[in-house]
UniProtKB/TrEMBL annotation:
Pfam families with a match to the protein in the record: Staygreen
Protein name from the UniProt record: Staygreen protein domain-containing protein
Superkingdom in the source lineage: Bacteria
The organism's taxonomic lineage, starting at the top: Bacteria, Bacillati, Bacillota, Clostridia, Eubacteriales
Keywords associated with the record: Transit peptide
Domain (Staygreen protein): residue spans on this chain: 4-147
Length: 148
């Protein structure tokens, strides 16, 4: 697994969020530059669709609850304009890069985790999103603590 270079992570707190509030409804948009390898994390009440490019290789995440317990829901878009063979390759790439993405979210929002340490034990659910049922599923990826 590649390790996060914190000097290449740029965090943008958007309107409606502070470094520690709110939890539920807090949304993350993680994008990157193929040229510089910089990572860009927007944290807000809405996803930063202004940062999404035509390749749709961003990672979207948000805090949700189930029966009163928080969990981190992460969404990656694996098809759309792509054929099934490309969707399978995109899943492979996302699975390789997701640990780095989760580490970037955990580090980039570290003050939230410091203020709410129970979040480090919340489950992470990854939704590999596809219109093709063969490529549309959920996986449990541990907890934020696993990506410190």
């Amino acid at each position: 697994m590649k390790r996060l270079d914190t000097d290449k992570l740029y965090v943008d707190f958007r309107a409606g969020v502070t470094m520690t509030q709110p939890i539920i409804g807090r949304k993350y948009t993680l994008t990157h530059s193929d040229i510089t390898a910089d990572l860009f994390l927007a944290i807000g009440l809405q996803f930063a669709y202004d940062k999404v490019n035509a390749m749709r290789d961003e990672v979207l995440a948000e805090w949700r609850t189930n029966n009163g317990f928080p969990f981190l829901y992460v969404y990656v878009y694996v098809d759309g304009q792509f054929d099934p063979a490309v969707a399978a390759k995109r899943i492979e790439i996302f699975k390789r890069e997701l640990p780095l993405a989760l580490e970037a979210i955990r580090y980039g929002d570290r003050r939230l985790f410091a203020a709410h340490p129970e979040l480090d034990k919340a489950p992470i659910w990854i939704h590999f999103g596809s219109a093709n049922l063969e490529y549309n599923w959920f996986e449990n990826w541990g907890t934020p603590k696993d990506y410190m």
